[in-house]
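Need residues for this backbone.
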């Protein structure tokens, strides 16, 4: 049986990933990298960069990951997009990642294709 993550352990994983994303873009992280807001689904948590961090995608349009998905049930973690400006889109995205984290790849693939079609 896979190990189950605690919220605190998942947040630390997200914090490490956020610092790596900032370093990849040559940005100096502040002491507080993640904001207090999280989203939760059955299979995962989403953590978000602090609003105090200057995001290059807001100025250049280049891809930049400002959210971090961490599975509750295994070591799966990924840098992901932040769609909080559209709450419905963000919630659908979290649910897709939750399916993936739960090992329901078939359902996740179908949901992702519908998501892409809806928000393209």
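Answer:
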């Amino acid at each position: 049986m896979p190990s189950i993550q605690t919220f605190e352990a998942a947040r630390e994983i997200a914090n490490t990933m956020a610092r790596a994303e900032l370093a990849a873009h040559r940005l100096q992280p502040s002491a507080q990298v993640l904001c207090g807001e999280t989203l939760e689904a059955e299979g995962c948590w989403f953590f978000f960069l602090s609003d105090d961090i200057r995001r290059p995608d807001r100025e250049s349009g280049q891809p930049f990951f400002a959210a971090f998905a961490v599975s509750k049930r295994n070591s799966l973690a990924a840098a992901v997009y932040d769609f909080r400006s559209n709450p419905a889109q963000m919630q659908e995205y979290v649910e897709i990642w939750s399916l993936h984290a739960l090992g329901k790849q078939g359902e996740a693939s179908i949901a992702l294709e519908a998501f892409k079609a809806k928000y393209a």
